[in-house]
Amino acid sequence: MRVTVVDDEKFAIAAADALMARLPAGAPRLGVATGGTPMRLYAELGRRSRGGEIDLSDATLVALDEYVGLDVDDRHSYAAYVRVRIADPLGVPPANILVPQGSREDPEAAAAEFEAVVAGLGVDVQIAGIGSNGHLAFNEPGSPLDSMTRVVGLSEQTRRDNARFFGGRIEAVPRYAITQGLGTICRARSVLLLAAGPAKADALAAALSGPVAADVPASVLQRHPDVTVIADPAAWCKMAS
Ligand code: GLP
């Protein structure tokens, strides 16, 4: 496991450098996380793309998860997040964006189909964040370490954390999501884990230095052969002690 601890102003640069170092040339398959933490990475990639330093327009973007019940055009959907914050700035065409279809009448079927698509494609580098409860994508505590893409219920903690994206209203945060499983995520050839802020300190320490166990879903990454961690000092502080 490679670890870089960097201050806020260098976080995006370190994350973008780490990503580009692991991403193969050609038409890479890039697994993308949503949430607040990777936004600055995506902004930095957009800046490099506009400046001609990188060209990811041939990439295929594979999302980790999606809320059940939100349409792709809903601005709170992860489909919209991937389109607006990642694909558009990088010039990735809509046909190269893969997000679980949370608005399908049968989300279980959508999950199974997504699993098959991701398995067939193969992700080169998976960008990941970590929830304050140790979740990975939407695999909440208790998720089997070998789980596949499926419909899951979201914990109170996660809905509370994500209410900030829904105008602060927890009741507006969907109760269910489709998420890649921990087993699905671990098939990616390389994982880039991003963690920032004091709210992630306990979860990060438990995930990286505690036992590998379903009650800390991100701990499954200890079993992955190629993980790069970019953390800020606040998220890393419990590791150092
Ligand atoms: C969200 C997403 C995860 C993300 C995590 C952390 O709920 N489903 O993929 O990594 O929680 O998000 P943030 O970076 O906003 O703290």
TrEMBL record:
Pfam families: Glucosamine_iso
Keywords: Carbohydrate metabolism, Hydrolase
Residues in Glucosamine/galactosamine-6-phosphate isomerase domain copies: 25-224
InterPro entries linked: Glc/Gal-6P_isomerase (IPR006148), Glucosamine6P_isomerase (IPR004547), Glucosamine6P_isomerase_CS (IPR018321), NagB/RpiA_transferase-like (IPR037171)
Protein name, per record: Glucosamine-6-phosphate deaminase
Organism of derivation: Mycolicibacterium sphagni
Classification lineage: Bacteria, Bacillati, Actinomycetota, Actinomycetes, Mycobacteriales
